[in-house]
Specification:
The protein is mainly α and 389 residues long. It has one domain: Hypothetical protein af1432 (Orthogonal Bundle), CATH 1.10.3210.10. Helix content is 58%, strand content 1%. The protein is built from 17 helices and two strands. A two-stranded antiparallel ribbon has the order 1-2. A hairpin with a 5-residue loop joins strand 1 and strand 2. Helix 4 crosses helix 8. The protein is globular.
């Protein structure tokens, strides 16, 4: 082994011993020849990027719908790219596999339906009698079943490690669907790359939602100064750049908020790993708790920021109006497709169960279809069926 500049003992291919080593991958469900120019995790990343589900994220809502916001507001696609960038940086510092981390980050939102969290809530209500709807479960369904690009198999046939990180990046799953999570050890933590992607997701959406919220008028700089994490850094920017425009001060503040959270996560996680004594990815999985964390102080400030955004932005009347519309549109579509199966596109009808009494099977196909729609295609579908916009 060699040592990195940060003092961590590395394997001969530049990874920490507790990283997820692609050379020891558990492989794919369907055996394929290796690519001569890419590692298995690089190949997984490329399959995500070239999937239809990934492209559709361009027109899926982060917070504000495509109809209510302008061209400069975030979508699920730009958010996923931001999460991937933060994930790579953290993985690089900790000598983890950057490609695996990036794969998990790029894939983590593939299961989101149109209209953001409001759309998920609406679809969950529609599916309540059939097991509910959870976007993390749906993401796993997308990459293992619903993407249909290859002649030999359904799904993307990702490596076991990518599936593990996609399935469990937010932690162990207590009530996992045994068939969907088969073989993924749902009650254990995933490798460190997946843990990194989870907190990179938090960092990205918490801070970039501030930017979008102020841009939409749901938040103000004055209101944001009630949050300690924001106010402290904004004061520093005022002192450093007293003549700067407010918009520049805001962007500088958000940028530095992200940098400080990343630094805190790096130092805290490195200390956690050293104290834990883990020397392999299997020991990481067996450790019993996450090793990628913020410090207690930063975690407290993160919770405060999340609570503030929930109360002042996500419950703002502009967001609530979009949510109301999302519930109506998705509810109408779900009810219509359940009653009239031939209203579904022909390429979707062929996946309906042959037994017309199998309502649960039918509901899953309907939910899969609605979930695959973008904000605008969902609105268009509703307009075609009901003649309203």
């Amino acid at each position: 082994m060699v040592k990195s500049a940060k003092g961590t003992k590395l394997t001969d291919h530049g990874l920490a011993p507790y990283a997820t080593d692609w050379r020891q991958s558990k492989g794919r469900k369907y055996q394929e020849p290796d690519a001569f120019d890419r590692t298995p995790y690089q190949r997984d990343r490329d399959r995500i990027i070239h999937s239809e589900s990934f492209r559709r994220l361009q027109y899926k809502t982060q917070v504000y719908t495509n109809q209510s916001a302008g061209d400069h507001f975030r979508t699920r696609l730009t958010h996923s790219m931001e999460v991937a960038q933060i994930t790579r940086d953290i993985c690089r510092y900790l000598n983890l596999d950057e490609d695996l981390g990036e794969t998990i980050a790029l894939a983590h939102d593939l299961g989101h339906p149109p209209f953001g969290h409001a759309g998920e809530d609406a679809l969950h209500m529609c599916m309540e009698s059939y097991g509910g709807y959870r976007h993390n479960d749906q993401t796993l369904r997308v990459v293992t079943q619903l993407e249909r690009r290859y002649a030999m198999f359904d799904g993307l046939n990702l490596t076991w490690e990518s599936l593990e990180g996609i399935a469990k990046h937010n932690g162990p799953i207590k009530n996992a669907d045994e068939d969907l999570y088969e073989g993924l050890n749902p009650r254990k933590h995933c490798g460190l790359e997946g843990q990194v992607a989870a907190l990179a997701d938090d960092i990205a959406y918490n801070h970039h939602d501030i930017d979008d919220g102020i841009g939409m008028g749901s938040l103000t700089v004055e209101k944001m100064r009630e949050v300690r994490h924001f106010d402290r850094i904004y004061e520093e920017m005022l002192a450093t750049y007293p003549k700067a425009e407010e918009d520049r001060l805001l962007k500088e503040t958000i940028r530095r908020m992200i940098s400080r959270q990343v630094k805190d996560l790096l130092l805290t996680s490195k200390s956690n790993i050293e104290k834990s004594g883990v020397q392999s990815v299997e020991e990481v999985r067996e450790y019993g708790k996450a090793l990628i964390t913020f410090s207690p102080k930063m975690e407290e400030e993160t919770v405060e920021l999340k609570r503030f955004l929930y109360n002042n932005m996500y419950r703002h009347f502009k967001v609530n109006r979009s949510a109301f519309r999302a519930h109506r549109i998705i509810g109408d579509l779900f009810e219509t497709y359940m009653k009239h199966r031939r209203m579904l596109p022909e390429q979707i009808q062929k996946y309906l169960p042959k037994d017309k009494k199998d309502k649960a099977g039918k509901a899953i196909v309907v939910a899969d279809y609605i979930s695959s729609l973008t904000d605008r295609s969902c609105v268009q579908e509703h307009a075609r069926l009901f003649g309203v916009r």
